[in-house]
Amino acid sequence: MSSGILKGIKVLGIEQQVAAPYCTMMLADQGAEVIKVERPGTGDSAREMAPMLKGQDGTATSGYFKRFNRSKKSVTIDMQSAEGKNVLKDLIAKCDIIVENYRPGMMEKMGLGYDVIKEINPGAIYVAISGFGRLPRYKGPFSSRLAYDIVAQAMGGLMHLAGQKDGPPTWLGVAIGDVGTGIYAAYACLLGLIKKQATGRGEYIDVSMYDCMTALAERAHSVYSFTGRVLSRGPDPLIAPWGPFKCKDGYVALIVPTEAMWARFCKAMGRDDLSSRSDLASGPDRALRMDELMPIITGWMADKTKNEVCDLLMAEGLPCGPVQTSEDIFKCPHLKTREMLVKIPDTVMGEVTVIGSPLKMSETVSRYATVPELGEHTKNVLKELLGYSEDTIAKLAEQKVI
Questions:
Q1: Which pTM value belongs to this model?
Q2: Across 191-304, where does the E strand assignment appear?
Q3: Is 211 found in the same domain as 273?
């Protein structure tokens, strides 16, 4: 097998925290050369965030940072200085894709807006990630606001759907506002590459966290569009049974989306009488009667383990699965076979286990390399990619530009 569908593609990550780093990590997994630009001295603020890991010599390193930055090259540049901006411009000229998620307006303030990027590199694909969007054509009243994951989840409609019926809206428990936006941004990068291959021209692609979360919550928004009904927390009003149901040692998640599956579900429970009731003949009908059905379902499960319930339901061809913890995930033989838990070398810890790429291909394998130390590749990138002399690099270091 080969590795590196994106081998030869150079990506410049003017990035911090999660959304843009997750995007560029996805590209690095598939062979792209990702050059991550960081501040001299401090680097990406994610390097300071917990959980902090300690090596045998007592050196601390951020596990948070390791989640999104494997297989990259770290270059430190003072982007506020004139000399630093010139170095950045030289990198822009050499890269196919620029991914950026700094505060809206910051690139323009530094004199590095898309008009300048396009002049430097007409074929550059510029993917700008922000909370609420950048392109002037689509500039809305929220454009200048900052957004973190929880804000995007809340405003996009996801939090309104998560949690118990009578409880408050709930954060989803995963940074989908960041990670989901990063995935959309990686898709945007590939669209830009296809356009560049076809036309030779680049593209400015504006990726908004608010837009992405609204898109992920499309089911609820579509139901409102079609019916005027606002979906909310608690049991689903359209499909039932659906959700996590308590059994002997935890919970089983299941969905009964069709009437044929409802009949098989009743058979699995030994309650064929329920499938013949006219008042339970559709998902919405059953949803209205979940107060009656819930104790029947959980009563049937009460003396069974998660795996026993799943075995009985799957024997009838029903979709279900145990609700798992991270410990369960790390013990899962299926995920081990799928190579979703991979070990990469680490300069502090010796080795760390990270979540691998979910993309599996017949002729190509994902590649995983170490997470870079701050500024680890500055000298090599400037020398080998940009052709800077040793004297020039030394002078930039002396001036604290790099």
A1: 0.92
A2: 203-208, 242-247, 250-255
A3: no
Q: Find tokens 């995920």 and name the residue.
A: 335
Residue 46 is assigned to a structural domain of this protein: yes
Number of domain units in the chain: 2
With pLDDT > 90 as the criterion, what percentage of the chain qualifies?
Answer: 92
Note down the domain range covering 313.
242-325
How, if at all, do strands 350-355 and 320-322 pair?
A: unpaired
Do 50 and 97 lie in one domain? The reply is: yes
Of 65, 68, 72, 60, nearest in space to 10 by CA = 72
* Backbone dihedral angles phi then psi of residue 205, each to the nearest 5 degrees: -115, 120
Give the Cα separation of 29 and 35 in Å (integer).
Answer: 13
**Main-chain dihedrals φ then ψ at residue 249, nearest 5 degrees:** -125, 20
pLDDT at 36: 98
Residues with catalytic function: 178
- Tell me the per-residue pLDDT of 88-122, one tens digit each, with 9 for 90 and over: 999 999 999 999 999 988 999 999 999 999 999 99
Judge if 357 and 315 occupy the same domain.
no
* CB crowding 380-396: b at 16 or more within 10 Å, else e: ebbeebeebeeeebeeb
Q: DSSP H helical segments within 270-370, as ranges?
A: 272-275, 283-288, 290-301, 306-315, 326-331, 333-337
Residue ranges in 157-208 assigned as alpha helix (H):
158-161, 176-199
pLDDT score of 51: 94
pLDDT tens digits, 198-219? 999 999 999 999 999 999 999 9
Domain of 308: which CATH number?
A: 3.30.1540.10
Residues 6+ apart with CB under 8 A from 294: 245
Helix and strand numbers, DSSP H then E, in the chain? 19, 15
